[in-house]
Write a structure and sequence with these properties.
The complex is a heterodimer. By secondary structure, chain A is mainly α. Chain A contains eight helices and four strands. Chain A has helices at 4-11, 25-62, 97-114, 123-145, 153-182, 187-219, 224-231, 233-255; strands at 20-21, 72-79, 83-89, 264-265. Chain A starts with a helix and ends with a strand. The relative contact order of chain A is 0.14. Chain B is 47% helix and 16% strand. Chain B has helices at residues 11-25, 41-51, 68-86, 98-109, 132-142, 151-159, 173-181, 189-194, 212-227, 241-251, 265-274, 284-288, 306-311, 321-333, 335-342, 353-364; strands spanning 2-8, 30-36, 57-58, 90-94, 114-117, 145-148, 167-169, 198-203, 231-236, 257-260, 277-280, 296-298, 314-316. The radius of gyration of chain B is 20 Å and the shape is globular. Classes of the chains: A mainly alpha, B alpha/beta. At the A-B interface, β2 of A face α6 and β7 of B.
Chain lengths: 266, 365
Amino acid sequence: MNTVKETTKSRIRLSHTYRHLKVEHLRQNLYLWLLILPVLILFMFNYSSLTYMISNLVKSTLSLVIPSSNMIIRSSQFLPYFGNVSFIDLPTAPYNNQLNYITLFISIIMLAFVFTGRRKGHPVSIFVSIGLFVQIISSLFFLFASNDFPYTATIYSELYIKQQVSLWLFFFIILGVLTALLGNGYFLYNIFFLTGIMIYSLVYGVLRYLTYLYILSEVSTIYMAALFFTFGPLFDFLYVTFFYGRYVSRIISVNETKESEDIWEW
Amino acid sequence: MKKVLVIFGTRPEAIKMCPLVIELKSRSQLETIVCVTGQHKQMLNQVLDVFGIAPDYDLAIMKENQTLFDVTNSILENVRGILLGEKPDLVLVHGDTTTAFTSALASFYLQIPVGHVEAGLRTYDIYSPFPEEFNRQAISIISKFHFTPTVSSLNNLLKEGCDSKSIYVTGNTAIDALKYTLTKSYHHEIFDWLGNDRLILITAHRRENLGQPLVNMFKAIKRVIDEHAELKAVYPIHLNPNVRRVANEIFGNSSRIKIIEPLDVLGFHQFMARSYLILTDSGGIQEEAPSLGKPVLVMRDTTERPEGIEAGTLKLVGTSEEYIYQTFKELITNQEQYNKMAYSSNPYGDGYASQRIVDIIINNL
């Protein structure tokens, strides 16, 4: 005859509601205070150099299309006591009415396309439609009030770098705390996960900075809003959530085996 | 060998063009001719002496009560003769003066390429500053090379339809000039009078500020100086009699405000370096002072130097007595705010603008 516990187990997985993993508080604290905190402090004292390196790299790459002398690496105040951030001061592409009309026309056509047939309701369609909707509003704004648009490529460049450093700080803190809570006893896996996501974020952040600056300086600022709302900070949270989901699944699958059943607590 | 003709006529122009002339003359690939119009004769010669530059042509057009019509006519006719005689490959003008505009116009009539130093500054109010805003916009239409001090100036030109390939961000040559003028051995009798007190440096002469705005500015400054015993102010006064009369009326009886004769560029830069804070309606000082770590209150309603405001080195305080008084007082009493302005980095250049401009000319002429 099956015990109550075995019957329950066959219907409800160990990781489900009201259970949590057993935690070794000492190990958790050591992980947080001796690893996460020092690395965080190290990052805070070095983001100034990091942003300078990124700006230098992006400037060198952009100098293939924009005269190098017309781009200046400037610094701006960020967190008190931890130093400034560097960003690129660069030309802004002048507004082009014809390009705006073409963009508006294509955006409306594409919006109608993603809302019809089998594409309707598909996650990719929803994502694309958000970008198109923002682009249509942006194009309409430029159509009637292009002179009132307050942002230049330089202002965006500065905001981007500040936003990116803030995201890196936030991601590191939040993922450091989460891995401490969930990944107790999986030290190497935690390190691999944290390092992986920060490297991914760094590479993606630099490539995105390069692409955005190229578009705003060489093509048009009419795309600024759409770029921000599609592949901007919201997208960062999207990929972090994706990686975090994979991480949690991995932790759960490791702990779902019968041998490890006793590490789950009610 | 390519021939470059450099034309300027006012003191601020000379301060910014002299480092460029020195750099041009140091290059063997170029022959450099210097022409001064003498739009501000006396003050111009002081600057030329400091930099050790002897002009090849001195038009000496300045006369009593000269109007814009006089200056324009005189320069246009005189520069024509020099252009026809010298046949330069490039004419370099600076900024927004009537000398710069008229020389550019004369070059255009003879189809000689023009290089515009400190291009792209704008307020987009054709009457403020007057006539400078018109002058610089008109020069931009004529110029082949636009040497802008900042990216923001470059953006102004792009918006107006200038070819991006003709615009170069070089920084401001005003910063280059500091390399030639600052010296520890300089002494002025006013420094003895100052002792350990904090020096407030004042400059005010702008045409659109004459009349009530000037009165407001001086009254506000006097109120703060009277309230703070640790402050002393020095006002190297402009030659304009309308400015002198108002200054003497308001500052005349103050024991802690000294009105002195105009300083040469060497002296003025030393005073800037010695100062605690600068109140000005001048353009060039807004660019130079941040390199010396001095906060600047700009007594104008608009500025064509928004980068300084954004960078935090300048504050636009307008010409209302109460607002100037409040902002000036706040900066004197709030050390944190003072430090924030003093330690902001200068967006106007690194002291190598002249070198960049000459490199561009050699590579593109």
